[in-house]
Amino acid sequence: MRCSPAFIAALLATVSLASTAWAQNTSDDWNGGFGERAERRSDVVFGAAPSLMLGASHGYPNEIEKIDQPQYEAKSGFTSGIGFEGWVGVALKDWFTFGVGGVYLGGYGKNSDISGGAGLVRVEVFPLYGIGLKDLAVFAHVGAGSLTLHEGSREGQAGFASVGGGGVAYELARFGHFAFAPSAEYLLVASQAMTAHQVLIGARVVFYGGPG
After folding, report:
1. Is the CB of residue 57 less than 8 Å from the CB of residue 114?
2. What is the pLDDT along the chain (212 residues), one digit of tens a residue?
3. Which of 14, 28, 54, 90 has most Cβ atoms within 10 angstroms of its Cβ?
4. For the whole model, what pTM was predicted?
5. How many Å is the Cα radius of gyration of the chain?
6. Cis peptide leading into residue 50 (ω within 30°)
7. Hey, what domains does the chain have and what are their CATH numbers?
8. How far lies 205's CA from each of 19, 23, 170, 176, 186, in Å?
């Protein structure tokens, strides 16, 4: 699987934000967190995020002799459709969660359609938790999947593709163990045969097992 610089940048940015949050929530007399009680998030995490998908893609049949040959290239132009993400994980801190899940993408252009999905590993931090902004989330995810593009009689097939990206969300409302948030993110699907850039704008609901 080819690792795109965008994937690496997304992970490094999230790790950096996690380090900042850690520094803001520790002090010289830190005792390892013994006796510390969660305020916002702990235990198991379940999330779901339906979204409007906007983007563009281009690619070739997943056959060596046809890749990078202009006569076989399919282009989606501007496409719109739906995206849906789901994940399960654990809140290790009020400001840090980790999980695994997947994403589905499907959309249409003027003379094209795309569809596909991926499995993802997800890291999410709340980088400003230590200064009182406790509900602003920054997340990144990486994984692998596939995407298919049709433009008239032409077809692009991603095959086994790298998938990665990241985004932001703000948990505006909380009801018991549930938090609701608008969200926006960018996803890149990349393989030797195909590249797709997608923006997902929507809302998510997350269940946190604790604190009770």
Report:
1. yes
2. 444 454 455 444 544 544 444 444 444 444 444 456 889 999 999 999 999 999 999 999 999 999 999 999 999 999 999 999 999 999 999 999 999 999 999 999 999 999 999 999 999 999 999 999 999 999 999 999 999 999 999 999 999 999 999 999 999 999 999 999 999 999 999 999 999 999 999 999 999 998 86
3. 14
4. 0.82
5. 19
6. no
7. 5-21+41-210 (2.40.160.20)
8. 26, 28, 11, 12, 19
Dump the DSSP string for 11-51. Answer: HHHHHHHHHHHHHHT--TT--TTTT---SS-EEEEEEEEEE
State the SS3 of 141-160.
Answer: EEEEEEEEEEECCEEEECCC
**159-179 in b/e burial notation, b at 16+ Cβ within 10 A?**
bebbbbbbbebebeeeeebeb
Q: Smallest Cα–Cα separation from 166: which of 5, 11, 52?
A: 11
Please give the structure tokens belonging to residue 83: 């995206």
Report how far Cα 129 is from the mean position of its chain's Cα atoms: 21
Report d(CA 100, CA 175) in Å as an integer.
Answer: 24
Supply 36's token pair. Answer: 């510390």
| CB neighbours of residue 23 within 10 Å | 10
